[in-house]
Design brief:
The complex is a heterotrimer. Chain A has one domain. Chain A contains five helices and no strands. In chain A, helix 3 runs antiparallel to helix 4 and helix 4 crosses helix 5. The model of chain A has no long low-confidence stretch (mean pLDDT 92). Chain B has nine helices and five strands, in the order E-H-E-H-H-E-H-H-E-H-E-H-H-H. Chain B is globular, with a radius of gyration of 16 Å. The two termini of chain B are 30 Å apart. In chain B, 48% of the residues are buried. By secondary structure, chain C is mainly alpha-helical. Chain C has five helices and no strands. The chains are: A mainly alpha, B alpha/beta, C mainly alpha. Chains B and C meet through helix 1 and helix 6 of B and helix 1 and helix 5 of C.
């Protein structure tokens, strides 16, 4: 019983952690830059802001992870954790 | 619930349907091959995909050399038959369907034809939009199969032929 | 691989009907008014259903091409 509540409270901490990370990405993002991008790139950046998922964001953009990482830096989006 | 893999032809039509998200009631995960994602440029489709990825109902299926090799062989083989051949993205989905037992979502006639004449792929389960709508109706997510099919064809601008509809003639009266 | 000839004949008929559907719904006024590249791509697509090659002819993405074919040229997808 106590193991279950331990796991549950750890999960809650992680949910909060990811929520906060998303807030930070949203706050620091250069939205003018992002909105000026062509649809594929814009949507990939927005997806990255929401999820922090670099792997799939790069795939949406049609880039390598390294290229997309350069792009997210240009877009002012911090990588958290 | 089972997994599915979708090609471009299915995706482009399905996301025009106003109830497109109902498809996630039938499948645990729908995989989109990387080569299919690379073909997509329209905002509407990309937004649908990114929302699905975020919700965990979609996932991207990577290019795997083994599957890629078999898909290329399938493309070549399909060209020896005097009807519509399959292109690489459809072939890729069929190979994944055969190897991993995923349901293949496609509107591509060449892929559906191949399943019917190539014994190696006859066991692959292939669903078109009309088949997904039928399943949703059987599972009570939709009220009327006939009305919903009309709506689907209107919204997606995909028209099913006589041969496609004959299979469901009992439900379309 | 030995192919069932009857099955092939059925599929030939199926694809012929699909082409008829595309031809019937197409907005020919729109198609004829397009610059050569687009017109040829749309006509090719009507005849063959091969949206990938048609999209390549226009330089569009496949979804962009199909959206144009459906929404502007009236050509439904069917097979």
């Amino acid at each position: 019983m106590s193991e279950t509540s331990d796991v549950s409270s750890r999960l809650k901490e992680w949910v909060e952690y990811f929520r906060e990370a998303r807030e930070i990405r949203r706050r620091y993002a250069n939205w003018d830059f992002i909105k000026s991008q062509p649809p594929k790139i814009r949507i990939a950046l927005e997806y990255y802001i929401e999820t922090g998922d670099l792997f799939n964001a790069a795939k949406i953009a049609g880039m390598s992870m390294e290229e997309f990482n350069e792009l997210r830096i240009k877009a002012g989006i911090p990588s958290i954790g | 619930m089972v997994n599915a893999i979708t090609d471009t032809s299915f995706l482009i039509d399905w996301i025009r349907y106003s109830k497109s998200k109902l498809i996630f009631k039938i499948f645990s995960i729908i995989y989109i091959p990387e080569n299919v994602l690379n073909e997509i440029r329209s905002e509407r489709t990309l937004i649908w995909i990114s929302e699905g990825l975020e919700e965990g109902s979609l996932a991207i299926f990577p290019e795997l050399p083994d599957i890629s090799r078999e898909a290329l062989e399938l493309v070549a083989r399909s060209r020896r038959v005097p009807i519509r051949p399959v292109d690489y993205p459809e072939a890729f989905c069929l190979v994944v369907g055969r190897r991993l037992n995923f349901i293949v979502l496609t509107e591509n006639g060449g892929a559906i034809a191949l399943k019917s004449y190539d014994p190696e792929y006859s066991g692959v389960e292939v669903l078109r939009g009309i088949d997904v709508i039928y399943r949703l109706w059987r599972l009570n997510y939709l009220n009327s199969f006939k009305d919903e099919l009309e709506l689907y064809q209107r919204e997606t601008k995909h028209i099913y032929s006589r041969k496609d509809l004959v299979r469901y003639s009992d439900y379309l009266k | 691989m030995s192919i069932n000839e009857d099955k092939i004949r059925e599929w030939v008929e199926y694809f012929r009907e699909a082409r008829e559907i595309r031809r019937r719904y197409a907005n020919w006024d729109f198609i004829k008014s397009q610059p050569p590249k687009i017109r040829i791509a749309l006509e090719y697509y009507i005849e063959t259903g091969d949206f990938r090659t048609a999209a390549k002819i226009t330089g569009m993405g496949v979804d962009e091409f199909l959206d144009m074919a459906k929404d502007l040229a009236g050509i439904p997808t069917t097979d």
